[in-house]
Amino acid sequence: MTYRGIRYNLAMQNDTIAAIATPQGVGGIGVIRVSGSDAFALVSPLFRRRANDQIPPSHQLTYGHIIDPQSQELLDEVLVAFMRAPHTYTREDVVEIQGHGGPLVLKRLLRAVLAQGARMANPGEFTLRAFLNGRLDLAQAESVMDLIESQTEVGRRLAVQQLQGQLSSQLQEARHTILGVVARIEASIDFPEDDVPTPTVAELVPIVSLAQRQIAQLLAGSEQGRLYRQGLRTAIIGRPNVGKSSLLNALLRTERAIVTSVAGTTRDTVEEVANLRGIPLHLIDTAGITPTDDPVEQIGIQRSRAAAESADVILLVFDGATPLTVQDRQIMDELQALGFGAREKSSSRSVVLVLNKADCQQRVETGELQEIWPDAPLVATSTLSGQGLADLEEAIVELALSGKLQSNENVLVTSARHQDALRRAAEHIDAAIASLQKNLPLDFVSIDLRAGYDVLGEVTGETASDDLLDKIFHEFCIGK
What we know:
The protein is α/β, with parallel strands linked by helices. Helix content is 45%, strand content 17%.
């Protein structure tokens, strides 16, 4: 296979690789990971301990020191675990050196291991080896990064489900169903002389429909799963001094943005992540989108427009204690031009109308707002009293999930790649059923079923191309 632009051949896979496995920065502990058939032989000369005559028992932490074999300089006081294959992350011999977590000391430890003959690991190469050696399938390998990058408890739980193989198990059930039909069809075509009976439409349609339902069940929760993994980009838009920064702070439950009575305090976008019922809500507080001659404010306004363009949801904030102004209408016009509004009903991007300062006498005429966005939720809030904040969160969740919540027992597809593969597989299965219903030759049915079977294999890696593997593992960090 090709990996990171080079041919990842058997020789490279047989290399012993090493890397720092803990994040950059200063910490109490840092870990050097070494994997490959020579891992024990390369690390042993560096490791000084009381009993130097043999390798310590597998998977047992052993106290000692790492010594530079050339100068005999003591590099660090460490704990080392020698772990024998196949009971390791990569199913190869693995050594993990736990030293002090300073960048300089970890680099010295890694340099000493590399000087013994190890090769510097590429990003994701440890997990790539776990996949190539059969410890993980491709969906499980991807869940490793999902688990590392999870931002909410729900996201973490979904990543663990995928790492445990729950998604792969359901995919294999669908593939097994499809393969059973393909085998019956192709046996009747290839061995007519053996009197293999030709399956009838009445026999095949229920079985193919079962595979169709199995795929549809996974697709049904894919949008929700994607949200739990990727989050929802939510831009807070409005003219100056309507309470955008106060709303950001209220949703975050912390004083993140500076709030004053002076209009235009926010001159740049401020982005933070809130946990909204398990969904990472990427909140973007923006500068007021109003004409100005100030060059700094102009840059802030340009960034606010960019935030609006990239948002999944707009929280359009108005000062409920003040009638709509020319500036309010200018912002509404801009958002309509970006595809937020009644003229773009097919757009997946949504608007929530927020009438802030609900603790004051309300003077906004809501009819004009609801004429432009007839389907948009309208929520009155007060960031001082907390009024309406729960309703606002509920409105965002309803927009994000379209009111459809999956049971916690169901496996949720969290990856856009997996979602796309399931959709393509569903199209092939639908085509096979259509061919059966039209009484077309079984060859046509078999072609579509085989294509659907292969597409599902892309998710688990059984039919994944080299380019796809390269793309996936290229996104991993070094040491994982």
